[in-house]
Write a structure and sequence with these properties.
By secondary structure, the protein is α/β, with parallel strands linked by helices. The protein has two domains: about 110 residues, D-Maltodextrin-Binding Protein, domain 2 (3-Layer(aba) Sandwich); about 120 residues, Periplasmic binding protein-like II (D-Maltodextrin-Binding Protein, domain 2, 3-Layer(aba) Sandwich), CATH 3.40.190. It contains ten helices and ten strands. Strands 1, 2, 3, 4, 5, 6, 7, 8, 9 and 10 form a ten-stranded mixed beta sheet that branches. The termini are far apart.
Amino acid sequence: MSKKMTYIALLQLTIISISMILSGCDKHENAKASEIPQLQGKLILTGSSTVAPLANEIAKRFEAQHPGVRIDVQTGGSSRGIADSRRGTADIGMASRALKSSESDLTAHTIAMDGVGMILHQDNPIKSLTDKQILDIYTGKITHWSKLGGTDNPITVINKAEGRATLEVFLHYFKIKNENIKPSIIIGENQQAIRTVAGDPNAIGYVSIGTADYEASHGIPIRLLPINGIKATVANVRKGVFPMSRPLNLVTHGKISPLAAAFIAFASSSQINDLVEAQYFVPIAQ
């Protein structure tokens, strides 16, 4: 055999050997990959209508990364989220407020910050109201806008239903009991309040700043009022200077499943900061 043929034969043997080694490595890597547990299963989240739209977007991104996972997000108010997480009818509750001392059996996982602001129709000439004036409106002491320099029309007072975290933030800030409020209309979700004010130039209500900011920027005819001289903006919530601010929480009870733990870790991470900001909330993860 010539030197040239011997060289070619050795080269072929080398190529075959390398191919076999690489093939063995691929099989080993594939075997290792198959040993990594893939997240599978279903999660049910219930509660706050403020948190729900954000939780929905987080769920979509999480499902895209884990095709074997399905997440069902339902509203019903923070009280429902608290109750369902306690009963075990939901894997995770949603609450747009801090936990109370009576809820020490639960764990809150903050995923964003938000503020609660007063809203008027954009055609209402009133530019600002003092805390006392807002309190007088809600307790029935002031019933016409003319008493505040506005039009000679009766004020439509919109209040939230019992069990809504937005109501609790409002009551806490103004140091008032719900039984002392004289509402014209009682509503549930933020969107109901926004639709009602948008359709009634004489209405006043209070909603999530993030939700109101988003809707106003998309052409809904509402306007946020300052509180105690501080503008109701996401920037002021971020700075911690807006007086009616609150955490947006995922709530759990006792030991939770690995899937629920993985979702909460994801929802609390910087991977979803863009989703938080898209909803006009304030991210907490750096």
